[in-house]
Amino acid sequence: MYVKEQKHYADSYGTSTTQQRVRIQTQIEAISIGANGFESMRTLAQPAGFGWEWMGNTHWNWDAEIAELPTLLAEKTLSPSVEPGRYDVLVHPSNLWLTIHESIGHATELDRAIGYEANYAGTSFATPDKLNTLKYGSALMNVTGDRNTAHGLSTVAFDDEGVAAQKWDIIKDGVLVGYQLDRRIAARVNRDRSNGCAYSDSPAHVPIQRMPNVSLAANPTGPTYDEMVSSMEDGIIIKGDKSWSIDMQRYNFQFTGQQFHRVKNGKIIGQLKDVAYQATTTDFWGSMKVVGGPSTYVLGGAFNCGKAQPGQVAAVSHGCPAAIFDKVNILNTVAEAGK
Description:
four-stranded antiparallel sheet, about 15% helix, Metalloprtase-TldD/E_C
């Protein structure tokens, strides 16, 4: 899918802006139907603020990924079903972006946190009375809101209330320190100005608070992906997003993925299937014990994030490194479906 968005904004304060944004999302899915049942696997490439140049091999190695997709899928169809239990889990950025989106991005929308979205996808456990005190995750956790991210899906020069794009802390050293704001609600947390999060998906809708690019910072001196794998004695690697669920407080959740690789003594020994990880938001992020270095960082994101009534759709990016989480609860999705 390719989108070119052109928007002109003017207000009675004298602000007048004209902006054009482009974004693209490309996915290729392989499907296997046979004696071992039905399995599928998608490419891991993420949507981004590029034009048609995204389809070349300059920004993403399409040739390599498409070439290995049939082999990976064939291996997945023959792989064993996961034994449920607690494992160390290395979550690849192609999966972790969605966990960020659901458990941090939506949870730190101030309008949701004060109850404005209660009738559509719920509220948030991260309420304003917890600002500057809530231990959201481990001390390794640093999350920012940023409307200036290069090639970000939520990147603009000015938001839809004429506020200039900016960057700010949402979670610092594991503690909740900020929210996403527009002019309408900034005063609810004693801020004297918006941080530029107003967006309307069409002239037919009023601007509301929408996500900036919400990203987890890499560890500047953190390990490479291969070093992270080598450090695991007994664990699972999860790549790619698939299905998920999260409660109306953005607290209890479950996520699956596209690829699940078993690690023993620092070596990948094969794939698994039927894997889901389940946790509460603070337990999961509190268990983050290794944050990858800059070489593991990938900008992922959602092309069509829904919010509000009447419904509006917005695109948003979430950058993150690979990260290792300690003793995460792993479910077998087939066994769970039979309960």
